[in-house]
Structures are given as C-alpha cells and as structure tokens.
C-alpha cells in the first residue's frame, strides 16, 4: 500500500489566514524549520493507480496538483484516479473538499450515518452535489471488507471503521453522538500492510487502541501540545478537550501512549497552527522524536 500525507495541518492550515501568532509569523517568513502546511488529509493506493482519499480538505485542489498520481490520467480529457473518499467526521476541514471535487462524476463517500446526517442537514451536501456530479454514500463496515473502486471492482485494499471519542462539528451542535467520529483501518490484501488513520480523537481508551494491533503505521491526531494552548496563545477560548482533541503532552497525553505502542511508524498529523511541534527546532519537537514518534509533513510518503 502506498500512503501519501497530502496535508498535515489542522483546520485553518498553517499559517492560518487571520493568525499572527509567533508560529504563523515564522511560517510566513519562510523559516526552513517552520514549514507551511495544508489542511489534514492523506491518500492511499494498493496499486499506485487507483487512489482513495482519507478526508477531503479544502486544500484538495493544491494537494492534487502537488502529487502526480492524483492528476488526471494522460489518456483522458477529463478524469481522475480518485476512486472515493473516506471521511472520519463532519468537521469543515475534512469535508469542504467535497464541494471542490463537484466537477467530476459521482463522488463515492464513505462515512458513518451520524456524519452523513450532519453533512446533509448542516451543509446540504447530497442536495448541492446532486446538481453537479452527485454523491454516492457508503456505510463503512465494522469488519474488514474490500474497498471498492467507483466501478464496483476491488481495489486491493480492505477497510473498516471503528468509533473513536469525538463530537459532531460546531455547525451541527457539537453533540457526542455514536459514530460522530471514526478511525479507519486499511489493509493491503497482497502485502498485509496495515494502516490506522485517526486524525481526530478526544481520547485513546483501550477499546480504541485494540484496533491498532498489528498496524505498521498510525496517523494520529496531533492538534494540540497542551489542553489550554489556544487560551494561552491568545488565539481562542476553547481548550483541547472542549474541541474533542487529546493533547500530546502530559502523563495522560497521546505521546505517553504512543511511546509504548509497538508500531513502526507513528506519525502526528492534523497539527494546529499553535502547536510548538510545528517548529523543528523546538524542545517539544525534540520530545516527540525522542519518543519514537514522527511529526508528519505534507508530501511524506511510505509503503506498507
Ligand atoms: C477541529 O478539528 O477541532 C475542527 O476542525 C475545528 C474547526 O472547526 O475548525
Ligand atoms: Mn479539524
Ligand atoms: Zn497562528
């Protein structure tokens, strides 16, 4: 399985359009150790030809142009190697790209019922897209099943979703309904390579960690270094827990959990523009590396 990190910033991107915090300022200055990032998404493929997006960021147009395999095939006037997208939740930074991809054919979207409902009630996704290419919804399975291409044939990947602690987005009332956030497991049928994708988690209880057994790679929520990061940096009022993100730091933070997990590649993505790990010369970045964890970067690729 080929895996590409298309974007590694949380909602707003990095730098964020209206933010003049120290990190955003350094990114704008083009400091090499503080690279700019687009909003969180990844792409996976078993054969390098048929691709599935993991979340659909508003930066998808730029993310496609930055990655040759996602561009239209040479042989077609209009076309795409994108076979569908798996959505982990209904947050705007993970779904606004749906509108960007409206010019294609039917868009195959995999998302749990609570996410689909939020998207249809809050953003009228199905209704709006109907006037363009249209949407075909797929309920992600709870047991591994083939992930099908848009023509119904097998892609060489198996997938399943599992619930993670999270909330519906603010436009949908921030309710913690079942299935309002999920993680995905993707398995390459030939190589057995196994990827876990969890860009938004409010917590990592044992019943979530159980899903990660035998994974070779984990892409995990790296939004905040600490709980009061937004109030402390003067960038917002909400804490990490109020926004349903488990911070990295502290005895109960995700870094201490990751440190002990026997997974070869443990990579943070969905990193908020306030998180000091965005600066590769910061002590926090060093602490992540020392724990055997990686700070994801736009364009990072690996094979499983
Ligand atoms: C989040 O990850 O908490 C959301 O994307 C925040 C937002 O609404 O931008
Ligand atoms: Mn987000
Ligand atoms: Zn900022």
Keywords for this entry:
single chain, 304 residues, alpha/beta, Metallo-beta-lactamase, Chain A, seven-stranded mixed sheet, 14 strands, 20% helix, globular, binds D-malate, binds manganese (II) ion, binds zinc ion
Query: What name does CATH use for the topology?
Result: Metallo-beta-lactamase, Chain A
Radius of gyration (CA) equals 18 Å
CATH superfamily: Ribonuclease Z/Hydroxyacylglutathione hydrolase-like
Query: Proportion of β residues?
Result: 15-25%
Return the average pLDDT rounded to an integer. 98
- Return the string of H and E elements: EHEEHEHHEHHEEEEEHEHHEHEE
Please identify the top-level CATH class. Answer: Alpha Beta
The name of the CATH architecture is 4-Layer Sandwich
Number of separate strands:
14
Unreliable residue stretches: none
Structural class: alpha/beta
Counting DSSP H or I runs of 4 or more residues, the number of helices is 10
Gap from first CA to last CA: 5 Å
Helix content: 10-25%
Please summarize the sheet with the most strands.
7 strands, mixed
Main sheet strand line-up: 6-5-4-3-2-1-14
The overall number of domains is 1
Coarse shape: globular
């Amino acid at each position: 399985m080929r895996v590409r990190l298309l974007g590694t910033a949380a909602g707003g991107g990095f730098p964020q359009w209206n933010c003049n915090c120290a990190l955003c300022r350094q990114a704008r200055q083009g400091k090499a150790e503080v690279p700019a990032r687009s909003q969180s998404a990844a792409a996976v493929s078993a054969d390098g030809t048929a691709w599935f997006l993991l979340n659909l960021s508003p930066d998808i147009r730029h993310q496609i142009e930055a990655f040759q395999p996602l561009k239209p095939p040479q042989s077609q006037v209009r076309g795409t190697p994108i076979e569908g997208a798996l959505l982990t939740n209904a947050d705007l930074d993970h779904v606004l790209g749906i509108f960007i991809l409206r010019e294609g054919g039917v868009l195959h979207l995999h998302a749990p019922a609570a996410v689909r409902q939020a998207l249809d009630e809050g953003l009228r996704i199905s209704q709006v897209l109907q006037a363009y290419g249209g949407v075909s919804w797929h309920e992600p399975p709870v047991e591994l099943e083939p992930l099908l291409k848009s023509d119904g044939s097998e892609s060489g990947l198996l997938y399943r979703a599992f619930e993670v602690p999270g909330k519906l987005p603010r436009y949908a009332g921030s309710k913690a309904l079942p299935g309002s956030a999920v993680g995905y497991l993707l398995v390459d049928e030939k190589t057995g390579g196994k990827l876990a994708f969890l860009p938004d988690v409010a917590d990592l209880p044992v019943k979530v960690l159980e899903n990660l057994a035998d994974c070779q790679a984990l892409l995990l929520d790296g939004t905040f270094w600490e709980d009061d990061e937004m109030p402390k940096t003067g960038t917002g009022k909400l804490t990490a827990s109020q926004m349903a993100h488990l911070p990295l730091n502290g005895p109960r933070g995700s870094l201490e959990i990751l440190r002990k997990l026997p997974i070869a590649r443990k990579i943070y993505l969905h990193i908020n523009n306030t998180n000091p790990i965005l600066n590769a010369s910061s002590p926090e970045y060093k602490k992540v590396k020392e724990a055997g964890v990686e700070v994801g970067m736009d364009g990072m690729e690996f094979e499983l």
